[in-house]
Amino acid sequence: MIQPFDDNYFMKKALQEAELAFEKGEIPVGAVIVIGDKVIARGHNLTETLNDVTAHAEMQAITSAANFLGGKYLLNCTLYVTLEPCQMCAGALYWSQISKIVYGARDEERGCINLKTKLHPKTKMKGGVMAEGASQLLKRFFIERRNLN
Amino acid sequence: MIQPFDDNYFMKKALQEAELAFEKGEIPVGAVIVIGDKVIARGHNLTETLNDVTAHAEMQAITSAANFLGGKYLLNCTLYVTLEPCQMCAGALYWSQISKIVYGARDEERGCINLKTKLHPKTKMKGGVMAEGASQLLKRFFIERRNLN
Q: Where does the CMP/dCMP-type deaminase domain start and stop, copy by copy (chains A, B) (predicted)?
């Protein structure tokens, strides 16, 4: 049976968000939040545009999803994000009690796994979904930026 | 010599912010960000009012300070916050490269110390400034809330 709404389907949406960040000269990370088969929030990194270290893709998606739901807890929601969340974003996801986090590429240095950020007991996490697409986009960004300087 | 601009002076400003949160029915936590002798940003917890788990006092103060400075790094800045920062806020402070964090009361369960959130190497942290005032306000809030239910 065809399953159109699988992890790859939603991670592609998150990658589209990452591409929007790339076009704005932002480190290309994108996120969507999904409930059932429906995307209820989108976000991409805007730290340079907004001049704000807190403007990560996930933070904006969390705020936007809560706004959509009319409640601050993201129960039965899944976050798709192209890069493993950092301490700040994982800390925000802890408070949100989100049901599931699906990330693309690992972030060995600044990601929540190696830094052991505590997730909410209700939250499951899965990684490596379309990781190659996410990390290729990041590599392309840093190569282009280096060539500009 | 009289030192009017000491840690207690600025923590009192943060406590005033916490009282504003209290009056709005929010868990009373307040913060200010200071550069030299000048308060450049204020914030208090607004998670209920804004229906947003990311709306902690510190997060709003970080965004506001960057806006004031016209740059996202909070170099030479000190954050005064009435309660030890959580993982999310400490993670945001990591990205901000803030010079110093001064907190009031400890948060043994959800604070960044016991949860071992990584701070930026440039960041110093000091605790226990006017801790009694901060924790009394929190206790009063939870007692009143319990009596309402």
A: 5-114
User: B48, B58, B132, B144: which one is catalytic?
Assistant: B58
CA distance B53 to chain A (A): 6
DSSP B29: -
Looking at B36-146, which runs of residues are DSSP E strands? Answer: 38-44, 77-83, 100-105, 124-126
Judge if ipTM > 0.90.
yes
pLDDT for res B1:
66
Confidence (pLDDT) at A1: 66
Which residues in A lie closer than 8 A to residue B118 (C-beta atoms)? Answer: 87, 115
Residue B35 backbone phi and psi in degrees, to 5: -130, 125
Spatial contact of B59 and B66, defined as CB atoms under 8 Å apart = no
* The two three-digit tokens of residue A68, written as one number: 């959509």
Rounded to whole angstroms, how far apart are CA atoms B34 and B43? 12
Question: Distance (Å, rounded) from C-alpha A34 to C-alpha A43?
Answer: 12
Give the pTM.
Answer: 0.96
CB A32 within 8 A of CB A74: no
The answer to the question of whether A77 is labelled as a binding residue is no
Q: Is B58 a catalytic residue?
A: yes
Instruction: Give me the residue label for tokens 């991670």.
Output: A11
pLDDT of residue A4: 83
What is the rounded distance in angstroms from the CA atom of residue A81 to the CA atom of residue A130? 10
Catalytic residue list of A: 58
Q: What six digits make up the tokens of B146?
A: 């319990």
Q: Residue A100's beta-bridge partner residues?
A: A78, A124
